[in-house]
Amino acid sequence: MRVGVVGAGVVGARAAEALVSLGADEVVVHDERPEVAAALAARLGGGVRVGDPLGSGGRDDAGGGGIAGAGPCEAVVLATRAPQRELAVRCIGARIPAVTTSDDAGDVLALLGLDDAARAAGVALVVGAAASPGLTGLLAARLAAGMDEVDEVHVAMHGTGGPACSRQHHRALAGQSVGWHDGEWLRRPAGSGRELCWFPEPVGGRDCYRVEHPDPLVLKRAFPRAARITTRMSATRRDRLVARLPMMIPPHAEGGVGAVRVEVRGRRGGGRGTEILGVAERVGQLAGIVAAVAAATIVRGGIGGAGARVLGAPGSPHAEMLAWVESLGVRVQEFVGSEG
Amino acid sequence: MKFLRRVMLAVGLAGAVAGVLRVKGKGTVAQRRGGWRSHTPRS
User: Mind telling me how many Å the CA of A155 is from chain B's nearest CA?
Assistant: First the structure.
């Protein structure tokens, strides 16, 4: 397995680590800051090299290394800041399957719009393979497997990964949220609709609000018959107050423990049921692992067919993918009881 | 002009109060019954 990773930040580094754990023969890392990519390759060692996953087929930038005679990468993880559309177009042009990790609503919409181009090129383009969207689709699919029909999918998230994720969180609170509601997309001001959501410990209860987030766009592809799909994100009062101002405090290098929570409502055995799954982990770690698992699944032929794909969609090997994610140390928990 | 100043003062005061309430507002913690446990997928 020969996989490229573009972007050696928090998510890219975690993706490279996860790919090594998944048995990748070679991981070709690229970053616009060469010293960052070199430091990552030096830290992980083994089959992790610096190179251009799209151009030189992964040969070492310094002229040495790489697998002699090896072809181009079998898949590429895009772990750069949004937008990732331009890179995805380059991957499609090079006929290399790509896994995108963007959490920007406009960018994700543009990536989903590359469906025809990816089909024409005969490659898979996995859109939104991170924590949210990404892991949320896998969790929702696991819950949906136990139901006759899914009516509603509600996602909540706490925490951020690296600096780019933190900036996106800031922007998301100032935009317009989109949610699927009884057959139409509803737009609401981000920062509204407070709801107390309980996440797995150590995160616990957090006030969550509507945000400009791509998860409903992605989940609608995975669950086309669902009547309601929403996403909320935790925020403090200060976050909401300053959301429409420029980000005055530089973002942290990496956020602390975050959490993802997915609630699925639907029909089961003649009645209605609600199931909730959650994960508490560093968001960058979750995103990197999910992206790596998506890339490995492509290489092993698990994501059949060309075109824009989302995690959790019917026909995708979501059960196997989530099992892989769990095997890399992610602990999935279920909520038992009631909230009031 | 006097009217305009009064309107601006009122809007400014209202904005300041709203900002303080938004940052320092009283939060309540809801009761929770239940908890999280490790999930095992149904076979």
Answer: 16
- CA-CA-CA-CA torsion sign (A333, A314, A152, A168): positive
Distance CA A9, CA A6 (A): 9
Chain B residue with CA closest to A332: the answer is B39
The answer, for B29 touching chain A at a CB cutoff of 8 Å, is: yes
pTM: 0.87
Using CB atoms, pick whichever of A319, A333, A340 lies closest to residue B30.
A340
ipTM for the complex shown:
0.77
Q: Which residue from A minimizes the CA distance to B19?
A: A241
The DSSP H or E segment spanning A36 is helix A34-44
Q: What is the pLDDT along chain B (43 residues), one digit of tens a residue?
A: 788 888 898 889 888 888 777 666 555 555 567 889 998 876 6
H-run or E-run covering A16: helix A10-21
